[in-house]
Amino acid sequence: MHCQLRVKKAIDSVEGVRKADVNLQTKQAVVEYEEGKANPEKIKAAIREAGYEPL
Fold first, then answer.
1. Of 1, 50, 42, nearest to 23 (Cα)?
2. Residue 52: its pLDDT value, please?
3. Domain contains 54
4. What single string gives the DSSP state of each residue in 3-54?
5. pTM for the model
6. Assigned domain for 27 exists
7. Are 53 and 10 in contact (CB under 8 A)?
8. Domain range holding 24?
């Protein structure tokens, strides 16, 4: 659960992210974000900075 919260926190820290739901059991994250402010590459970079490798 701790890892899941760290990944969610990392995604939520990206400017423009409105909502993030992370499930490490299914290895999926559903992210709602504002185009022009956030994008998949920025989100993946935040996950990497938190010490995890996005799939």
1. 1
2. 94
3. no
4. HHHHHHHHHHTSTTEEEEEEETTTTEEEEEE-BTTB-HHHHHHHHHHTT---
5. 0.91
6. yes
7. no
8. 2-49
Residues sharing a CB contact under 8 Å with residue 28, sequence separation 6 or more, in sequence order: 22
Residue 27 and residue 55 in contact, taking contact as beta carbons nearer than 8 Å: yes
Rounded CA separation 53/55 (Å): 6
C-alpha R_g of the chain = 10
For the chain, what is the domain count? 1
Is the separation of the CB atoms in 25 and 17 below 8 Å? no
Q: Tell me, what CATH number does 19's domain have?
A: 3.30.70.100
- Within-domain flag for 25: yes
Write out pLDDT tens, residues 1-55.
689 999 999 999 999 999 999 998 999 999 999 999 999 999 999 999 999 999 8
